[in-house]
Amino acid sequence: MTRVAGIDCGTNSIRLLIADADDGRLLDIVREMRIVRLGQGVDRTGRLAPDALERTRVALADYAASIAEHGAERVRMTATSATRDAANRADFVAMVRAELGVDPEVISGAEEAELSFRGAVAGLPGVTPPLLVADIGGGSTELVLGGAGEPLRSHSMDVGCVRMTERHLHDDPPTAEQIAATVRDLNAAIDRAAQHVPLTSGATFVGLAGTVTTIAALALGLDHYDPEAIHASVISTDDVRTVTARLLAMTHAERAALPVMHPGRVDVIGGGALVLRTLLERTGADAVVTSEHDILDGIALSLLP
Q1: Per-residue pLDDT at 12
Q2: Distance of alpha carbon 108 from alpha carbon 35, whole angstroms
Q3: Is 296 contained in some domain?
Q4: Pairing of strands 131-136, 141-147
Q5: What is the pLDDT of residues 271-281, one digit of tens each?
Q6: Is 301 a domain residue?
Q7: Which of 41-50, 64-73, 194-203 has the highest mean pLDDT?
Q8: Where does the Ppx/GppA phosphatase N-terminal domain lie (predicted)?
Q9: Which one of 31, 36, 76, 245 counts the least CB within 10 Å of its CB?
Q10: Residue 17 lies in a domain
Q11: In the chain, how many domains are there?
Q12: Structural domain containing residue 29
């Protein structure tokens, strides 16, 4: 049995998984998430903000201590959308090297998609391929179609909950015009994605990451965030529409009061919900299968010999 540690640093959150790997399966030892908003303002400035880098450094120092405490033999950290886009990503790399002792891998959208697909499939036994996996992040959304022995087809869209919120959803709650502008932006991105990934193939639609799991928790009417209840739940497209409309009509305080809402998602969940709703409508899927396993699991699995 091998003990591995994977770190996923995205636009909105940084997450750690320490797990024992045996026969291609993972047994969680530590699974943790911090909202650090590394991508704060990147869509506008093209640079990682100093306070965002510092928030990330503090979280990473804690993660490094946890990795040392639990004796992980192999460590891999990947960084995704915000870091790909940043002119000063060398500052980020130097900070990670100093805190963690390894370099972060600033992976491409295609690599991100493949890791997300691997993590999702490993965590959803029994789901029938082909699968269309949508990993909705802060700065980007990865779409991957695969299964049934076919090569993976993927595309990374520069749309995510943070990017859409910063770009369009400026009022609280957002105006109808701001919502319409977001949907236009999303449809243009999906049009481009459809040139690379067939989106009306009848594949099972699988949704990953915090936007999807939070919407699932709301659709299920949970009184607290329960990963076991959320994982592998099937949420109808109609229910996603209902939850999205509800979130977009709420104020910040009303969203913050929802018992399943992580504080770091309060201001961006509306943008993420629009990404999920628009994807479901454009693909013609009647439901989303929700996965609590995603790129983080894929990173850990990639460390197996």
Answers
A1: 84
A2: 22
A3: no
A4: antiparallel
A5: 999 999 999 99
A6: no
A7: 64-73
A8: 17-304
A9: 245
A10: yes
A11: 2
A12: 2-107
Structural domain includes residue 225: yes
Q: What is the DSSP string of 106-170?
A: E--HHHHHHHHHHHHHHT-TTPPSPEEEEEE-SS-EEEEEEETTEEEEEEEES--HHHHHHHT--
Q: Is 169 found in the same domain as 128?
A: yes
Residue 117 predicted with pLDDT over 80: yes
| Dist. CA 53–CA 61, nearest whole Å | 12
Mutual angle of helices 176-193 and 269-283, in 10-degree steps: 50
Assigned token pair, 140? 């980007």
Residue 259 shares a structural domain with residue 150 = yes
DSSP-derived 3-state class of residue 245:
helix
Structure tokens belonging to residue 66:
């946890």
**Mean pLDDT, the chain, as a whole number?**
91
* Eight-state DSSP code of residue 12: S
Q: What's the length of the chain? A: 305
